Amino acid sequence: MGVSDKSLYLWVRLSKEQQGVGSGETPAMRVEIARLKAELKRASEERDILKKGRNVLCQAVRVKCAFMAKHHGQFRLSSMCRVLRVQRSGYCACKDKPKSDRALADDVMLVSIKRFFRDSHGICGSPRVHRDRVGVPATAAPDRLQREFTVTQPDQVWVTGITHIRTDEGWLYLTVVIDLPSRRVVGWAMGASMATELVLGDSMMAVWRRRPKAPGMIYSDQGSQFGSDGFNRWCKDNQLVPSMGRRGNSWDNAVAAPCVRLAVAHLSRG
Fold first, then answer.
1. For 58, which of 19, 23, 97, 243 is 20 to 30 Å away at the CA?
2. Any idea what DSSP says for residue 22?
3. At 66, phi and psi to the nearest 5?
4. Tens of pLDDT, residues 40-70
5. Alpha-carbon distances, residue 33 vs 20, 22, 27, 28, 36 (angstroms)
6. In whole angstroms, what is the distance from residue 217 CA to residue 199 CA?
7. Cβ distance 156 to 216 under 8 Å?
8. Residue 108 belongs to a domain
9. pTM (whole model) above 0.85
């Protein structure tokens, strides 16, 4: 065949080395070596993931998902999910919708904050910006009363409203809470401004004086004070369900104005 003895012996020795024959290596040892190599590869990959992703370990899930999408071609997805503690389903959800509704709302709010700060020539700080521009917007409650102004049980429906009174020192704002069946004033508050704290004051007085034993309804117009987040949270904590008449509808708000005028007359006498 034209092959020398030396070449044949060399090929036989190389074949034995590759198969482990003559070196004491068994099939079980070869399986264990393969397992250790795979474990080493896994540990090396996890080390590299931690090295590159150390800045996102304590971040939100969407930040981690963005890192995973960026390095998807470099690391296995299963390894990144395991190291970063992210569910595969969560990664798929983030991939389909990169930004949540809250994140989109934050982006809109950030634009408003920057615009307001720029318009103020960099003078306004965070408290004033929050108070004047980015407070939670007022929301209108549905008309749950539906013009059912004939109520027989006390503290079942309260009516509240705001009016202004001219004084020698300027305008004074009065807000009252009236029990609808008896038309009795159960809470009131006065102040120099129509802030949310004003409507909270009369409602607190009404709850403190009447101490209703069952959840009730508080009816008002669609003023920003009654639609504020603070007022709605307070109502929820005190088992009061807000109800509002439709904007500009005199029939829906027919009960509120007379009650407020009655309260003004009552308080002026007392």
1. 97
2. T
3. -65, -40
4. 888 888 888 888 888 888 888 878 888 888 8
5. 12, 17, 10, 9, 5
6. 15
7. yes
8. yes
9. no
